[in-house]
Design a protein that fits this description.
homodimer; 237 residues; alpha/beta; Arc Repressor Mutant, subunit A; 5-stranded parallel beta sheet; 12 strands; DNA-binding
DNA sequence: AAATTAAATCATGAATCAATCACAAAATTC
DNA sequence: GAATTTTGTGATTGATTCATGATTTAATTT
């Protein structure tokens, strides 16, 4: 049981409810959360979940959108409309990416969304991120990329796995460009043009160096910046 | 109706306008704000909003950046440039990360922003945070920052570690700006615009000097004013 | 496997930007 | 309106960041 990964959070152990009809998936989630020092309780249907909820309030709920008996959205809605449960953070599991758009448009918001198939690592990272936000609400709205990367645009701050990375202005600009269209390959020419539209006489090698420095400062997230030989660079999740 | 969550704020019930074209989202926001004891009015387009604004001034505006008829930025700008509305706090809703740049780059832009998809709980928390900030800055009471800094805006007095610091008017204004959105980076242009909106021909170097003097007079608290190379200054706690 | 090409890395000089200073110009105070 | 305080300017200094060309490493082609 690895408790240390949980060290950035408050000391008391957090309890997480999992409402998911497929036992395999539920257990996969539970095992990984436990490994990170969380307590979990799994429920295969909404009734069992509601029953337990009366006895014990979880710190977070992981909720499958597609339940056999009840719609996950209904569960979310009913929790949100009940003042004693409305403060429980919810992470939704959805099957398809385009379902998210529906959810967004719908009248209830979960705290985060994860699409199936998901990596357990990713889910755990999101759980931690949501709980961290709970604790520190005066912190800015950080845009999260690929689990470990967070950017606070207002503060010009970048965090990798919760730790601050000190980027220069051009490095941050470069990162923004690469993130603008994830997976899209940008040529060195395009990158230089974005970094300084006026200056035309800058060599391509300069980009390499910026990429190198950026990768270095981003640590593990630096690996996500890929080179496409003969073409340019891209950010791949 | 849970009124207690609102207890930290001033007693009179706060009215919040929501300018958002998608009714589902507008209602989602409204429901959750009402649950926290706020009064809300929703508008699906800018015309309706402006019409009501003439009759009634809200305590805060939640503004979607992407409106069908008008650009949300335009609404923000027009409110800011109108002295009778310029003090209304604005929270912006954005869909994409790169839209955030626009908000931040805008002279005296929004007070906060939330990216879609957002959780209603988070938005409510942001609303409360912004309102608390407004109250603080208009309070007779002293505002405490980072343990060592105390500011009495009514008396125009600043104390560092209990000792009074003699700031000039512009220095106090500058400090107030930096503290308004703690951690947010202000460009020299934004700072100059705030210090004297009319005077346009003032050099950037002037800001440096004000910052220097302010840092000096704030003693140990001066270290909290950070420069972001190539961007501007911020107050970091 | 050798040759070829491109990317990563490195050290260094150039350029940029912030901090500071001394002084001039305004604005306040007396 | 003289004196004093505050604000703005331009120059100088110092630090950081950026750009470059050479060199090493890695990937691709023949």
């Amino acid at each position: 049981m690895n408790q240390s990964q949980n060290s950035s959070l408050d000391l008391p152990i957090k309890t997480i409810f999992i409402l998911e009809d497929e036992p395999d998936i539920a257990e996969l989630i539970a095992i990984n959360l436990k490994k990170s020092g969380f307590k979990t309780k799994e429920f295969t249907n909404a009734d069992l979940f509601y029953k337990q909820l009366k006895k014990e309030k979880p710190d977070l709920l992981i909720l499958d959108l597609m339940l056999p008996d009840t719609d996950g959205l209904e569960v979310c809605k009913s929790l949100r409309s009940n003042s004693s449960y409305s403060s429980i953070p919810i992470i939704m599991l959805t099957a398809k990416a385009d379902e998210i758009d529906k959810i967004i448009g719908l009248e209830l918001g979960a705290d985060d969304y994860v699409t199936k198939p998901f990596s357990p690592r990713e889910l755990v990272a999101r759980v931690k991120a949501v709980l961290r936000r709970e604790i520190d609400l005066n912190n800015q709205d950080r845009v999260r990329v690929a689990d470990i990367l967070e950017i606070d645009f207002a503060k010009f701050e970048v965090y990798v796995e919760g730790k601050k990375a000190e980027l220069t202005n051009t490095e941050l600009k470069l990162l923004k460009l690469l993130l603008h269209k994830k997976g899209w390959v940008y040529s060195r020419g395009q990158i230089l043009d974005y970094l300084d539209p006026d200056d035309k006489g800058v060599l391509d090698r300069t980009v390499d160096v910026h990429i190198k420095n950026l990768r270095e400062k981003l640590g593990p997230a630096g690996k996500l910046i890929k080179n496409i030989r003969g073409v340019g660079y891209k950010f791949e999740v």
